[in-house]
Amino acid sequence: MKLISFEGFEYSGKSTQIKLLQNYFRSNKIKSTFTREPGGNKQLEKIRKIILQSDFDNLSLILFFFASRFSLLSTMKKDDLVVFDRFFDSTYAYQKITSKDKSLIINLINHIDRKFIPTITFYFKINKKTLLQRKMMRGQKNYFDKKYASHFTRIQSNYDEIAKMKIGKRKFITIDASKSKEIIHEEIVDHLKRCKLIK
Ligand code: TYD
Question: CA 3, CA 118: separation in Å to the nearest integer?
């Protein structure tokens, strides 16, 4: 199994890039599965809906996101190429507030079987100016996005922190989210080729 994960704050263009990659894989007949967190299967999507509309405390959220993740990973087939819309970096970025949160999240990451550590993670780093421009154009999304909108600086610095950590052999690629979607897509395909995930 090979895993690829996509990360980023709202309006970073993460979903657009996932769609472009899905189209690329389809037209090049590359067998793959696309999934998202939280969610990914029928049962977990139901829980996703509840969680993203609720106001649980932070510790419960950490445990929930990992429970959802472990549950999904346990059902994954062996030789698939799986693309994740968010993975453990999201929990670190969004739910890491105290040093206690940090050690809990790192411990939980260490509990993930090595075969489920992504080969590569793409993080779309958005600057405040681009974020505000895109927000003005498109409006705010769901309750969770609203809840974390004012946490931009903390979330961004948490992403920068986990970017520097060595987690298995995974590669962490930070992409400037203000670049054009076509250029970013080319960069992603290029990285995947260099990692030999695709030909
Ligand atoms: P996302 O899947 O990007 O949905 P949308 O494109 O509709 O914004 O994000 C869902 C929300 O879940 C987002 O606000 C981030 C949050 N989230 C966490 O806080 N921690 C996590 O571990 C995960 C996976 C998501």
Answer: 4
Q: Long-range CB contacts (< 8 A, 24+ apart) of 42-51?
A: 44/68, 44/71, 44/72
Segments making up each domain of the chain, as ranges: 2-194
Report domain 2-194's class.
alpha beta
Cis preceding linkage at 38, omega within 30: yes
Q: What is the pLDDT of residues 90-125, one digit of tens each?
A: 999 999 999 999 999 999 999 999 999 999 999 999
CA-wise closest residue to 66 among 36, 46, 47, 88 = 88
Find the residues whose C-beta lies inside 6 A of ligand 1.
Answer: 10, 15, 36-38, 52, 65, 85-86, 90-91, 94-95, 141-142, 144-145, 148
pTM, entire model: 0.96
pLDDT tens column, 180-199: 999 999 999 999 999 999 99
Q: Ligand 1 centre and the CA of 127: distance in Å? A: 18
